[in-house]
Design a protein that fits this description.
The protein has three domains: 99 residues, Ubiquitin-like (UB roll) (Roll); 137 residues, no CATH class; 228 residues, Rossmann fold (3-Layer(aba) Sandwich), CATH 3.40.50.740. 24% of the residues lie in helices and 20% in strands. It is built from 15 helices and 24 strands. A seven-stranded mixed sheet has the order 17-16-22-21-20-18-19, with helices on both faces. The chain has a five-stranded mixed sheet with strand order 2-1-7-3-6, with helices on one face. Strands 8-9-12 form a three-stranded antiparallel sheet. The chain is elongated and about 100 Å long. The two termini are 24 Å apart.
Length: 536
């Protein structure tokens, strides 16, 4: 692979890489505002300027400037190298680039920072971007000087409602145009543009339109400062109080990688942010996916129930044993869930094996909206995983048919969600002699259950999900479990032990050890990690 030198370090690059992209791929940040790895490079912020040392048989491009000389108390003519934007300049073999080590580059960055802050409001204490703002970070890294302009700054519109989800503060905007380019290049809806010139610039929405659709949250995410905020997160939390877990979006079968941000003091989840993975979701998420963090708290099963009465897990398991203990094992069916992790589904599938080969069915949420960008019609995060674990599993519709024909009378189900909530389906479920449900969220199955066991949500435990490409992805534990909930694989162990089955797992590592090799994935987690690249 060809290389170039950046501040004396060899940086490998791929053909077509810009200097900044090659550096970012190897964990080296060249300061920038307008550049984003997933968007075109306009080179308008000038923060990524670098110095190129002259190559063989090529003299440096120099500029004639005037510079103040304190010794003679006057300006004098000098020359300096013409700096180039690293976001547009291509990397070439043997090239020598100076970034942090160049005096001219350091001076240019400080000047750009000062220029951007001339009219910028000093409202960091109330700005949602405070704590993760590039203006703050780069001021500390590349300027560190007090504001020299004491004139009244230019005032622009504030708290402009762009649409149902986004609010814009023009005074904070640095005109990087990331939001404009995202809507045009990724969302394919060029509804944003820039008007006026110089320090009167501002972003606006096309007349007669509003910022709407399925990808509006990404305009806020790509904004490097606090100009764009989401109504959902606006004034809700301070980022320095939040902790982050590497998660997998549960909204559909795409399995977008995400950061799940939560406050450990209150155990509350506040938002999702895209986590870069070029093999799956690149740098993006849809609005519905970014809002799906709410399911960490909404619609949850947090306590065990016998019928409609709350109880302890121990008493609920004891009741389930009483209901299932004298039933012929071949009469008990098992229902897997595409809403739950591989570990959870494997444990429940094991119950079917230990029960002597009980019939296995599979369920999940019904189909929904899809597009050609990210959103899949399959609204389950682990449909492919369930198919790997139980390739011969019958569908939920077949389960209902078997209930109506009395071929099935007792069911152990994982997950409360079903493809539909139909009164006729509820009638069929009511025909069951026993329905034991292990679930994290309420649904048609928990409504009909005789015994409900509370499972942790995806946000509260470590789990594996297989997306539509067959990629096995790990989701990390974030907040603590709500109520009495426990991982579904652990509840399956408690239920299996109560039924006198030879349960072979007691810890997550046991489940994962036994799970390995049950079905090969087309791409494993390590392959996914190797294919990802850094991005701003």
């Amino acid at each position: 692979m060809p290389t170039f030198k950046l501040d004396g370090k060899d940086i490998p690059f791929e053909p077509g890489d810009s200097i900044i992209k090659a550096a970012a791929r190897h964990g080296i940040e060249i300061p920038h505002y307008c550049w984003h790895a997933g968007l075109s490079a306009p080179a308008n912020c000038r923060m990524c300027l670098v110095e190129l040392k002259p190559a063989a048989n090529q003299r440096a491009m120099m500029l004639d400037i005037v510079e103040w000389d304190a010794s003679i108390q006057d300006y004098k003519n000098v020359q300096k190298p013409k700096l180039q934007p690293a976001c547009q300049y291509p990397a070439t073999e043997g090239q020598e680039v100076l970034s942090d080590t160049s005096k001219h580059v350091r001076e240019a960055r400080a000047a750009v920072q000062e220029f951007l802050l001339l009219n910028h409001p000093v409202d960091c204490p109330i700005c949602d971007q405070a704590g993760e703002c590039k203006l703050q970070d780069y001021w500390l890294e590349h300027q560190k000087t007090a504001k020299r302009m004491h004139d009244e700054p230019i005032h622009k519109p504030k708290a402009v409602v762009f649409g149902p989800t986004i609010v814009y503060d023009a005074e904070r905007c640095v005109m990087c145009t990331r939001c404009i380019r995202f809507m045009e290049e990724v969302a394919k809806d060029p509804v944003l543009d820039m008007r006026e010139r110089g320090n009167l610039n501002e972003i606006f929405v096309a007349p007669g339109r509003q910022l709407e659709g399925h990808y509006t949250f990404m305009t806020e995410h790509v904004c490097p400062v606090g100009a764009l905020t989401t109504k959902d997160f606006r004034f809700k939390a301070r980022v320095w109080f939040l902790r982050s877990a590497k998660s997998v979006c549960q909204g559909c079968a795409t399995g977008c990688n995400a950061h799940l941000d939560f406050d450990p003091r209150t155990n509350k989840v506040f938002r999702y942010r895209p986590r870069d993975n070029e093999a799956v979701n690149k740098f993006w998420m849809c609005d519905e996916g970014m809002l799906s963090y709410r399911a960490a708290h909404e619609g949850r099963v947090t306590h065990a129930r016998i019928g409609r009465k709350a109880t302890t897990i121990e008493l609920a398991v004891k009741d389930a044993k009483t209901r299932l203990g004298d039933v012929p094992k071949e009469s008990i069916a098992v229902l897997l869930s595409a809403q739950h992790s591989q570990e959870d589904n494997w444990a429940v599938r094991e119950l079917s094996r230990l029960l002597g080969g009980a019939t296995v069915y599979a369920a999940g949420a019904g189909a929904g909206y899809k597009d050609d960008i990210l959103i899949d019609a399959d609204k389950n995060p682990n449909t492919s995983g369930v198919a790997e674990l139980a390739p011969g599993a019958k569908t939920y519709s077949q389960l209902l048919d078997d209930l109506r024909s009395s071929r099935v009378s007792h069911v152990i189900a994982l997950g409360g969600v079903t493809p539909r909530n139909d009164p006729e389906d509820a009638t069929a479920l009511g025909m069951l002699g026993t329905l034991v449900v292990i679930a994290s969220h309420e649904g048609a199955l928990t409504d009909a259950a005789h015994v409900v066991l509370p499972a942790t949500s995806w946000a509260e435990h470590n789990g594996t999900y297989v997306n539509r490409q067959g990629i096995h992805q790990l989701s990390e534990k974030g907040p603590l479990p709500e109520g009495d909930s426990k991982p579904a694989w652990e509840l399956a162990r408690l239920l299996g032990t109560a039924l006198g089955l030879d349960v072979s797992w007691s810890k997550l590592k046991d489940v994962r050890t036994l799970l390995v090799g049950t079905a090969a994935s087309s791409r494993d987690v390590a392959a996914v990690a190797a294919s990802t690249t850094g991005a701003p």
